């Protein structure tokens, strides 16, 4: 029993009082837990859009002590059954309804969409076509290409649009605001400040005039050369609505875009190492931007 999780009767999935062997079967909200480079999610199957998600329910599911625990919730709903995605139903059958762990809604989640695709595939809810598997999000349609170990997603083209700063404790770091469908501030560390020394337990202070809806803040330092890519950086992130996480896919996209630009490159790949692993960001000759990394499902259960 997850004591901190509360949902109303209409949100329950009743699987029957007794299994065929006579044992009691739990009534409750079905979920799967998954992660991409340690950015972890509670996945809620809701194909017909019957679940009433509330900020309170999301926050209690994501509670790491009283709930299942996660950086966010991915509700798996048919585009046709969700008011924000119905217009995309002809292009993408499924809509990723993403929520941060504090119960706020975000436009996009780069790790989340890869985990979402893993969920669709493992549950035989979708089959990728020759051009990949489209998924509707609040930031538009992303297309996933499934590899042996990783899932690559064609993302929104990142757009750098302003200079700004983030303040962490006594340190103020200049950065670049980047729109990846959701807002980011990419701050390169200088003057011997080590990435590991930052205290990201508290939200970095940013300029609310530049980021009226909040922002995900990435801190970056250079990495050692890595074969097969044009650059390698190390990143930590404080996510809007979730706090410090082990990884952020859209954050890596923003960081990769700034790293390529700083190298004077319009195309190429950047390895972005986050505390939870490695993501690869690529800008290709066709002008498309890709995010690649692992996506793993770890458990399925019922919140009683
Ligand atoms: N972890 C995600 C980003 C999730 C949304 C973000 N916290 C926001 O509020 O914009 C990713 O992998 O991109």
Give a description of the structure:
- Helix content is 12%, strand content 38%.
- The chain is mainly beta and 304 residues long.
- The protein folds into two domains: 9-156 and 295-303, Diaminopimelate Epimerase, Chain A, domain 1 (Roll); 159-286, Diaminopimelate Epimerase, Chain A, domain 1 (Roll), CATH 3.10.310.
- Strands 5, 6, 7, 8, 9, 10, 11, 12, 13, 14, 15 and 16 form a twelve-stranded mixed β-sheet that branches.
- The protein binds the ligand N[C@@H](CCC[C@H](N)C(=O)O)C(=O)O.
- The ligand N[C@@H](CCC[C@H](N)C(=O)O)C(=O)O is lined by residues 39, 72, 100, 106, 109-112, 182, 216, 239-242, 245, 248-250.
Brief description of this entry?
With 304 residues, the protein is mainly beta. The protein has 3 helices and 17 strands.
């Amino acid at each position: 029993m997850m004591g901190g999780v509360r949902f109303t009767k209409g949100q329950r999935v009743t699987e029957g009082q007794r299994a065929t062997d006579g044992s009691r079967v739990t009534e409750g909200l079905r979920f799967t837990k998954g992660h991409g480079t340690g950015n972890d999610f509670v996945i809620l199957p809701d194909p017909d859009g019957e679940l009433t998600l509330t900020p309170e329910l999301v926050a209690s599911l994501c509670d790491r002590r009283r709930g299942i625990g996660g950086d966010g919730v991915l509700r798996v709903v048919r585009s046709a059954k969700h008011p924000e995605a119905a217009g995309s139903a002809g292009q993408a059958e499924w809509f990723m309804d993403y929520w941060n762990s504090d119960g706020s809604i975000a436009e996009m989640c780069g790790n989340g969409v890869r985990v979402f695709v893993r969920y669709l595939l493992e549950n035989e809810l979708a089959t990728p076509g020759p051009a990949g598997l489209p998924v509707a999000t609040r930031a538009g349609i992303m297309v996933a290409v499934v590899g042996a170990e990783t899932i690559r997603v064609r993302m929104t083209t990142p757009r750098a649009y302003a200079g700004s700063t983030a303040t962490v404790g006594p340190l103020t770091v200049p950065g670049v605001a980047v729109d990846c469908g959701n807002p980011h501030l990419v701050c390169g560390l200088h003057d011997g400040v080590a990435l590991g020394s930052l205290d990201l337990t508290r939200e970095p202070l940013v300029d609310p005039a530049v980021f009226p809806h909040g922002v995900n803040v990435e801190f970056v330092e250079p990495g050692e050369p890595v074969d097969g890519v044009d650059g390698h950086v190390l990143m930590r992130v404080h996510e809007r609505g979730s706090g410090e996480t082990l990884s952020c896919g859209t954050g890596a996209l923003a960081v990769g875009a700034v790293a390529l630009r700083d190298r004077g490159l319009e195309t190429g790949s950047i390895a972005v190492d986050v505390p939870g692993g490695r993501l690869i960001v690529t800008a290709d000759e066709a002008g498309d931007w890709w995010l690649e990394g692992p996506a793993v499902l770890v458990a399925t259960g019922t919140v009683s």
